[in-house]
Amino acid sequence: MFVAIAVLGLFLADLEIIGADPWSEFGRMALGAVTPDFTATDRLFDAVLQTLAFAILGVAVANVFGFALALAFHYRFVRVGCAFIRAIHELFWALIFLQIFGLSPLTGILAIAIPYAGIIAKVYSEILEEADPAPARAAPSGSGAISIFLFARLPDAWVHFKHYSLYRLECGLRSSAVLGFVGLPTLGFHLDSAFKQGSYSEVSALLILFYIIIATMRYWVHKRLLPAYLIAAVIALPSGVSISMTNVVRFFTEDILPHPIRVAESIDGAVLEKLWDWIANLLITQAVPGAFNTIVLTMIALVGAGACALAMFPLISPKFFGKKGRTIGHVLLVVARSTPEYILAYVFLQLWGPSMAPAIVALSLHNGAIIGHLIGRHTESMATRSDSPKGLNLYGYEILPRVYPQFLAFLFYRWEVIMRETAILGILGIPTLGFYIDSAFADIRYDRALVLILLTAFLNIGVDALSRRIRYRLRLKTTLNHA
Amino acid sequence: MSLFDLRNANARYNGAAVLSNITLSIAAGERVALVGQSGAGKSTLLRMLYEQRAEEAALLPQELGLVRVLSVFHNIYMGRLNLHSVWYNFINLVRPMAREVKEVREIAVRLGLEEKLFEPTGELSGGQQQRTAVGRALNQDSDILIGDEPVSAVDEHQSRVVLESINERHKTVLIAMHDITLAITYADRIVGLRGGAIVLDQPTAGMVPSDLDDLYRN
Fold it and tell me: Which of B67, B141, B142 sits opposite A155 (nearest CB)?
């Protein structure tokens, strides 16, 4: 059924390739990719430093608040609040904070810290729930809840917290890089200008540095070095951008009020009527088409990601390829999943012009690579009989049927992620909700932007709930629940 | 005066009767061994008894209840969590104080765990883990100990050390065990269970292992 919806979506989607001469542009990009230019050392160093600084501080703040929220996660309003703040993409948070705090470091840190705190709270509370209850029962009675928590529950969970934080930092690096596209001084900012100048050799240098940072994380992230990193990050952040308090106050007391209420002297029938018109207009001209495109693109990208994953996982599976072949597969998959979908879409957009095609390809490749990686890893431990068939027969009869439930579980898990990203890709000019939100911000119509962001958040929450229901109905389990 | 008192007590698990019609009274200072085949209801009976004195008794559960990522020191220290403030506990979690290490070390030496004092318990052998759990119970400020098979994974010599230490430290001792010789040596009263009922309740004075053969006959 999902495939049928996606095929239907293909008819509804605008897939036109507009680029003047996509292939010659592609040729220049490919040339740039193989001739990386590391000579602009100052700029490269600055891009990397700022990306790291925002990511480290954002994730650190998110960890502190996420942990605190995880402890209060049994309260319904905390759960709902966390679901809400994580349903809004970090780029939307950045757009909001740009209006409030301008280009100050606070904008970037909060844009990462707020949605991440919501995600971390959920994951940490699940980890704490799964901690072995036996030690707490064996502790002497009268030991005080905090002491028991410190000794009997926290140590077990701590190991998982550390692993998850590392994964979050990797996500944080991607988010931080992408924040550059809305003006913060991170990698995306330099990528954007390098692209606009057509200096593709610098683009590839930036991307290669980014891959190196992510690939070597295991070696440079170390418990003892963290305080040093945090201090260095604070020093590295751009200074001299002052926050205007009047701006802050005006944003909350005036800018975000719906226009008819803002200009009204007092609230009466006429104002309410105008408010109704305002809402109806917003819904018909922006919210509905934006939501429609977002859903269409999400569905196509979901199936596309599934197809990519099924095509890609054999590349890293020892059941299909030897050691050499798998190395190439690993490199391909690492590149596809380390590059944020926003940057992938940006690259394809340069080639094909603004339509849904770049977004579909970017989302399918990135998410397909993530799922493909997990499934490929899964096949490593799979036992097949020694006389089992080879090649396509092995794939169709032996491997695919066994990994299929796992595959579906991961795919549905990514559904909400794909939807969040789909909305965001609107900022690049694809008419999803993000497109309307970005234009509203550009037109200084913050009231509209906020309504549309809320709508996006509710769509995400809805898809998340739906995917959880489907996974439950199909009895699918994600063993790696933070895939 | 009796510390534990059960009258016609029953227990069910998933609808099936595990204990039926148990009447048992244990006075302060008694050392009782619960014996019987596995599945006879020893663990359930111990749990019921523990609930009567959960406030004061030290518990040594069958699953040990160790925090696997914490060291032997920390797990033994946990026996005294209730005697210190949160801050004192927190400091000892992060950086054990010399005074506490000294006390815990004495227990560890006795149980043959000294060399493993700062190793995570998850990396120890089954017997070492069991002795760590015993250490935690010994460290607990309690006159009563309730233990479910505390020596099932340690060798004969170590078993004797463990049971002697428990008898020295705790006044009232209730232990489930399957080694009848040890039960007769270290307890002064034996309660035999079979099919969820008490079929034997005698002092150990003058008892020989073959007296208990009936309990294990199919």
Answer: B67
Question: What single DSSP character describes residue A256?
Answer: T
pLDDT band at residue A173 using 50, 70 and 90 as cut-offs: very high
Please state the rounded mean pLDDT for residues A252-257: 73
What per-residue confidence (pLDDT) applies to A482? 39
Choose among B126, B70, B77, B69: nearest CA to B106. B77
**pLDDT tens digits, A399-437:** 788 888 888 888 888 888 898 888 888 888 888 888 888
* Amino acid at the residue A309: A
Domain B1-57+142-218 homologous superfamily, CATH: P-loop containing nucleotide triphosphate hydrolases (3.40.50.300)
Measure in Å the smallest separation between the Cα of A162 and chain B Cα atoms: 13
Task: Name A372's Cβ contacts closer than 8 Å, sequence gap at least 6.
Answer: A308, A309, A310, A311, A312, A313, A315, A316, A333
pLDDT at residue A483 in the model: 35
Q: Under a CB-based contact definition with an 8 Å cutoff, are residues A310 and A435 in contact?
A: no
A155 contact B CB<8A: yes
Mean pLDDT of B106-122: 92
Domains of chain A: 1-21+258-483 (1.10.3720.10), 36-255 (1.10.3720.10)
Say what the pLDDT of residue A231 is. 87
pTM score > 0.80 for this model?
A: yes
Contact B89 A138 (CB under 8 A): no
Q: What percent of chain A is predicted at pLDDT more than 70? A: 91
All CATH 3.40.50.300 domain ranges of chain B, comma separated, are 1-57+142-218
The end-to-end CA distance of chain B, in Å, is 37
Tokens of A312: 């890609």
Alpha helices in B17-155 (DSSP H): 42-52, 72-77, 86-94, 98-110, 126-139
Angle between helix axes A400-425 and A446-473 (nearest 10 degrees) is 170
Nearest to residue A226, comparing CAs of A178, A166, A174, A185? A166
Question: If DSSP codes are grouped into helix, strand and coil, which group holds residue B32?
Answer: strand
pLDDT category, B91, cuts 50, 70, 90?
A: very high
Comparing alpha-carbon positions, the chain A residue that sits nearest to B57 is: A140
Q: Using the beta-carbon criterion (under 8 Å), do A156 and B81 form an inter-chain contact?
A: no
Residue A283 has phi, psi (to 5 degrees) of -65, -50
Using an 8 Å CB-CB cutoff, list chain B residues near A143: 81-82
Task: Report residue A480's pLDDT band, with 50, 70 and 90 as the boundaries.
Answer: very low
- The model's confidence at residue A7, banded by pLDDT at 50, 70 and 90, is low
Residues B208 and B180: their CA atoms lie apart, in Å, by 9
- The answer to whether the Cβ–Cβ distance between A151 and B65 falls below 8 Å is no
Mean predicted lDDT score pLDDT of chain A: 83
Say whether A138 and B90 touch across the interface (CB within 8 A).
no
Contacts of B56 in chain A (CB under 8 A): 141
Chain A residues in contact with B66 (beta carbon < 8 A):
135
